[in-house]
Design brief:
The complex is a heterodimer. Chain A is mostly helical. Chain A is 71% helix and 3% strand. Classes of the chains: A mainly alpha, B alpha/beta.
């Protein structure tokens, strides 16, 4: 018996919006079973990871802190993904953006002024965009696959980070620890809710996502991105240059990732450390797809993944689950999302007729 | 072999449905040994689905296929070939970079040595008068020669039923004559032929019997030699054939679109280079460009429309302005609109709504965007306007382009460009795969636009179409354009010879010349 995928005539619109929800539910069920099978209390784990961060109001600030960089990076990536530009190296652009902003901070560490922080942010965005311009250049000039080049550049950026931390940027008063000096008060993102850790970068990420929504749905630029992604020949016919679109998509993706990087450095870290890369750039890929590449969906997707991060930390302390547990749940979510997506667009068909024919 | 019946193959009450469409509804007909049987119908009438079931690519939902009297199930193409069914597809499956022999060897079910295969190929070619060098690389062959590979491939299996799917759509008139000769020889040996086409004069010339399909149902059986083309056409489209209203014009305005020595290198390994193309089109004139597919038509359209600009600005002049170095957006602003051949993914984005598809090309001329922002309500009203003016059957401007039938989408695409009121309209294959009603509407719209003083260039493989609507025409072959011919004065033979080309395969060319003399 052969199982075939048959394209559905018109995929159900409701299902298209329901699949992320189904994927999350399936992750919870299968994850629960999986962790039970390997000897943990699986359903307690699911509860700690997915429910506790939501019902425990003390954890909301953590959700905001985690969701912000995910949303910011995912919105940038989604613009590229819509144009069929597969920037997988947001992690690297995030690191280089963080480093570029840190560079400004180190140059101005004896100075004070309102202008320093915006300058760091601009430097962060430019740093990320410049780092993304390498795969953009390779793609448009030499037709190098951007998936590979952007991914590999991530590892290069990590080495750059380690070099700077252990070498030129090491805090001279830091007892030889590989990290920079602490940023001064003009160099850190201010708290916006007193008494919490929620910094200015959090609302900015949400605002940027909403602006991106407006741009993608109302502007010729957003239209261009969608046409290039859906039908390159039609885009050329419509007068849109594929190369320029690749450039713009890469620069925006890199710029947003770089901005998220400096927000993270000037927010929670308040300095640059070798532990700076935490995988936000990769997790943001899941967020982008969970959010259907739509900025508003990405806000929701970012919150869901933030829940899994925060919940993973809770489960580590309360249940003694390994650190990798949250990662497993996140990966499962992407898997179920892609799988349910296939089933929305295609139906399974048992090809019995063929078998009967073969037998006769 | 026990002959229980007079028929080679009988189809009775075949029904096949796809989600949303009944492709074949209770279809029955039968073919005798040695008979050349036409399956006639418009695009979408269900011809291809039917033959795919005979060839085992699909299975019927209901009904029975009987092969020489015996009820059978054709599980897959391999089983069909085993029975003795051969098929030549409309689109060839050949590896361009391999030789004829290698291509045939790859398609064989049984593995035999290359030498033996070559011997067999030469034998088949001798018997049926097919000329082809087995060691030529496919990419160097003309379309007619490529089709011969597919025919040889089918004949090597000694078929008793050969299915030909729209075999002449890519051939020159001379190549068609050659093909018919081969098919007649084949039928004389007792092989049945199922000949699928929508070209009536060919069916009248070649076929003994015809089954006419419309909307998946058999609507008539006839002997084509006893019918007129008009009577068969009316059975096929189920209504009166509309005539295009076009006055014979002798007076035209000033030249609006002048191409002077346009040359361009081909893109990639198999792209066609354009060399020294020159022609000019006057206000009110329709200029046709005929030619066999793959001779540079796409490249020419993209060079003329501005999708691929050239550096030498003077090679294309639009109302006296040099525009060859401008991109498609700039040319559109100067009044040049274009409709490329491929609807899906080139002229239209299938998963976009019709109104988004209007934004694709009409945003500048129709003011559907300003300051980088889209004016969605203006786009919708322009789209509605196109839909109502051109009678596009759709649920509205929000429905995706992919939900429209081929003919309706083509009407929309043509309408979208014509309603921008272009000074010059470039249109490639305006009625490719479009039903007769939509084709007539599109032809009339083109003629009307010319009446209003626009200059129009129509690129088409359909010679009948060009002869019906054009004032002047030229033929493109291997990226070179022939001299301009006046439509009333050019003979089909002359055009056919130009389509075969002066630079083509010397053998094929010689044949064409001989054929032309024989007529």
């Amino acid at each position: 018996m052969l199982i075939e995928l048959e394209k559905r005539k018109e995929p159900s619109q409701t299902m298209l919006y329901l699949t992320p929800v189904i994927a999350v539910l399936a992750t919870m069920i299968v994850g629960g079973i999986l962790f039970t099978l390997i000897g943990h209390n699986g359903f307690a784990a699911v509860k700690e990871i997915f429910i506790t961060p939501i019902i425990d109001t003390h954890k909301w600030q953590d959700l905001g802190i985690k969701a912000a960089p995910l949303i910011l990076i995912a919105v940038g990536l989604s613009i590229g993904f819509r144009a069929n530009v597969w920037n997988i190296g947001a992690e690297g652009q995030y690191i280089v953006g963080g480093l570029a902003g840190t560079g400004i901070a180190l140059l101005t560490w004896e100075l004070e002024g309102w202008w320093i922080l915006p300058l760091m942010c601009i430097a962060g965005a430019i740093g990320g965009a410049l780092y993304a311009s390498i795969p953009a250049f390779l793609k448009t000039k030499l037709n190098v696959n951007e998936i590979l080049s952007s991914l590999m550049l991530t590892y290069a950026s990590i080495q750059l980070l380690y070099y700077l931390m252990r070498g030129p940027w090491k805090d001279p008063e830091g007892f030889n620890f590989p990290q920079t000096r602490l940023f001064n008060d003009s160099q850190i993102l201010p708290e916006i809710i007193p008494g919490t850790i929620v910094h200015l970068g959090v609302p900015l990420a949400f605002i940027i996502a909403i602006i991106a929504w407006f741009v993608m749905s109302k502007s010729i630029f957003g239209f261009q991105i969608r046409v290039v992604g859906s039908a390159p020949a039609a885009a050329r016919y419509g007068g849109f240059s594929a190369k320029r679109t690749i450039w713009m998509a890469m620069l925006i993706g890199g710029g947003f990732a770089g901005l998220a990087g400096i927000f993270e450095a000037a927010g929670p870290f308040q300095q640059m450390v070798p532990q700076f890369p935490t995988g936000y750039g990769f997790t943001a890929i899941i967020v982008a797809f969970l959010g259907r590449l739509h900025p508003i969906g990405i806000i929701l997707g970012g919150l869901v993944l933030a829940v899994s991060y925060v919940g993973g930390e809770i489960a580590q302390t309360s249940l003694g689950l390994p650190n990798a547990a949250a990662g497993i749940f996140q990966a499962m979510m992407l898997f179920f999302l892609l799988a349910t997506d296939i089933l929305v667009k295609y139906r399974l068909k048992l090809n019995i007729a063929n078998q009967a024919g073969d037998a006769s | 072999m026990t002959e229980k019946t007079d028929y080679r193959i009988e189809l009775s009450a075949i029904t096949k449905s796809f989600p949303g469409v009944l492709a074949n509804d209770n279809v029955s007909f039968a073919i005798k040994p040695g008979e050349i049987h036409a399956l006639l119908g418009e695009n979408g009438a269900g011809k291809s689905t039917l033959v795919k079931m005979i060839y085992g690519i699909m299975q019927p939902d209901e009904g029975e296929i009987r092969w020489e009297g015996e009820a059978i199930k054709v599980a897959n193409p391999k089983a069909a070939r085993k029975l003795g069914v051969g098929m030549v597809f409309q689109h060839f499956s050949l590896f361009e970079a391999m030789t004829v022999l290698e291509n045939i060897a790859l398609g064989m079910d049984a593995k035999i040595s290359q030498n033996l295969l070559e011997e067999k190929i030469r034998e088949v070619m001798d018997v049926y008068g097919l000329k082809l060098d087995p060691h030529r690389i496919v990419s160097t062959l003309s379309v007619g020669e490529r089709q011969r590979i597919e025919i040889v491939r089918a004949l090597l299996l000694n078929p008793r039923l050969l299915i030909m799917d729209e075999p002449t759509s890519v051939l020159t008139p001379q190549e068609v004559a050659q093909l018919f000769e081969t098919l007649r020889k084949l039928s004389a040996t007792g092989c049945s032929i199922l000949y699928i086409s929508h070209k009536l004069h060919e069916i009248k010339e070649l076929c003994d019997q015809a089954t006419i399909l419309r909307g998946g149902k058999v609507v008539g059986e006839c002997d084509p030699k006893q019918e007129t083309s008009k009577s068969m056409a009316e059975m096929m489209i189920g209504g009166d054939l509309k005539q295009i209203e076009k006055d014979v014009k002798t007076e035209f305005g000033d030249p609006r679109f002048v191409v002077d020595n346009l040359s361009q290198v081909g893109e990639g390994d198999f792209g066609v280079a354009l060399s020294n193309i020159s022609f000019s089109v006057r206000a009110g004139e329709i200029f046709g460009i005929a030619g066999v597919a793959g001779n540079g038509q796409n490249e020419l359209l993209m060079a003329l429309s501005g999708e691929v600009p050239t550096s030498n600005a003077d090679t294309i002049k639009l109302d006296g302005k040099s525009v060859a170095d401008q991109n498609i957006l700039q040319r559109r602003k100067h009044g040049l609109c274009a409709v490329p051949e491929e609807r899906n993914g080139h002229a239209a984005v299938v998963d976009f709504s019709l109104s988004d598809n209007a934004i694709l090309t009409a945003r500048e001329r129709m003011n559907l965007a300003s300051g980088g922002l889209i004016k969605h309500s203006e786009a919708r009203s322009y789209t509605d306007n196109v839909i109502s003016t051109f009678g596009v059957k759709t649920t509205g401007s929000a429905s995706p382009a992919g939900s429209l039938s081929g003919g309706n989408l083509q009407k929309f695409v043509v309408g979208r460009e014509i309603m921008q009121n272009p000074d010059v309209l470039l249109i490639s294959q305006p009625t490719w795969g479009v039903d007769a009603g939509a084709a007539a509407a599109i032809h009339q719209a083109i003629v009307d636009l010319a009446e209003n003083g626009s200059a129009i260039i129509v690129i088409s493989q359909d010679l009948d179409e060009l002869l019906a609507i054009c004032d002047e025409m030229a033929v493109i072959n291997e990226g070179k354009l022939s001299k301009t011919l006046k439509v009333g004065e050019a003979s089909v033979d002359e055009i056919g010879l130009l389509m075969g080309g002066i630079h083509g395969d010397p053998n094929a060319n010689q044949d064409s010349v001989e054929n032309a003399h024989a007529h």
